[in-house]
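Team,

Forwarding the record for the chain on the shared tracking sheet. I've put the sequence and predicted structure together so nobody has to dig through attachments.
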Amino acid sequence: MNGTLLALTGLALVAGYAVHLAFTVLRYRGVPVPLEAGPFAEEALRKGLTGFRVRVGRRNGVRYPERSVYLTRAVYEGKSLYHLAVAVHEVGHALQWRERPEMVRAAQGALTLALGLLVLGFLVGPSPLGAAFLTGGMASSSRAFP
């Protein structure tokens, strides 16, 4: 497989995933739920005794040192199945931290290493060295979630 075909295959996979994700988001944004996602996330964190709090931010995510779950304003105030799923996903990360903080730190490190190796593999291109980087990146990412 030459480099151009490999690049086009990778681009098609990424584009296909982006289209699938867009259709999934559109589908579930239209399914109403009787509560806002933000207050639901706050209650779940309170009941989970995590010590985390919910904040409105620019991006959805968890900042472990701050012990904060960030939701965009749209997600925080959203009342659809999509918004609720995003909030629950982020709360799940906080609950993982409560249960196994050492595993979360190890997974973050492994995923950072995996991303670096994958990028190097694509930059080097089709060669034994590029294949080694890609293989290492895939192995690192699979070790992040045993």
